[in-house]
Design brief:
Strand content: 5-15%
Number of strands: 5
Radius of gyration: 20 Å
Number of helices: 9
Oligomer: single chain
Largest sheet: 3 strands, antiparallel
Length: about 210
């Protein structure tokens, strides 16, 4: 089951392994997630073992793993199919969280896919529950059995900045920051993050 904690672990491992190019070991994962006690480390080990079973991680040796990027597209396809089945079977007046619960897909992934479904004419607004917008499947959705696929993988708008942040963490944990090459990479990633948020501030100021 996808949870925010599992999604965070997945993102950390992706960043530390540089998309599968390098191996990662438990001590490095513990450091990146700030796991200071045994219960927290045990939760990480349990989640890692689940990722190994799904072949998201490949076990290189005891306690050492390699991220498997080949499962990414397949997993995304399965998520789209599960969410689409939930959309078509749900009664009018469902929220993103309802779909996430039924489909066992993370709320963030459901939200992004449903936003695309709405733009494509498969979802329609159907009132509110408190401050939460509710939806219903459109006639186009009811007439379509096969899963509508986005034109390309739905991209996290902060994916670049998240990867830059993880690269900074990895450099501090595994390299000598006094080395010129390491310092250069840290500065480059910091600038990438700063440039994004400086632009956001400027856009807000001129809006």
């Amino acid at each position: 089951m996808r949870t925010p904690e599992a999604d965070r672990l997945r993102l950390v491992i992706q960043g530390l392994s540089v998309g599968g190019k390098q191996t990662v070991a438990y001590p490095l994962i513990y450091e990146a997630l700030a796991c200071s006690d045994e219960p927290a480390k045990a939760r990480v080990r349990k989640q890692v073992n689940e990722m190994v079973k799904r072949r998201e991680l490949l076990r290189v040796e005891e306690g050492v793993f390699r991220f498997n990027p080949d499962t990414e597209e397949k997993r995304s396809g399965e998520f789209y199919q599960r969410v689409w089945r939930a959309v078509r079977s749900a009664k009018p007046g469902f929220a993103y969280q309802d779909l996430a619960t039924v489909s066992r897909v993370s709320y963030d992934h459901v939200r992004k896919y449903c936003q695309w479904l709405a733009e494509a004419g498969f979802l329609e607004r159907h009132g509110k529950r408190g401050q939460t917008y509710l939806f219903r499947a459109s006639e186009a959705a009811k007439d379509r059995v096969d899963t509508p696929w986005p034109p390309r993988k739905i991209r996290d708008p902060f994916e670049t900045e998240k990867r830059a942040t993880l690269e900074i963490v990895r450099l501090f944990l595994t390299h000598d920051p006094y080395q010129p090459a390491t310092r250069k990479k840290i500065v480059e990633n910091c600038r990438a993050i700063l440039a994004r948020f400086e632009k956001e501030d400027q856009d807000d100021a001129t809006a």
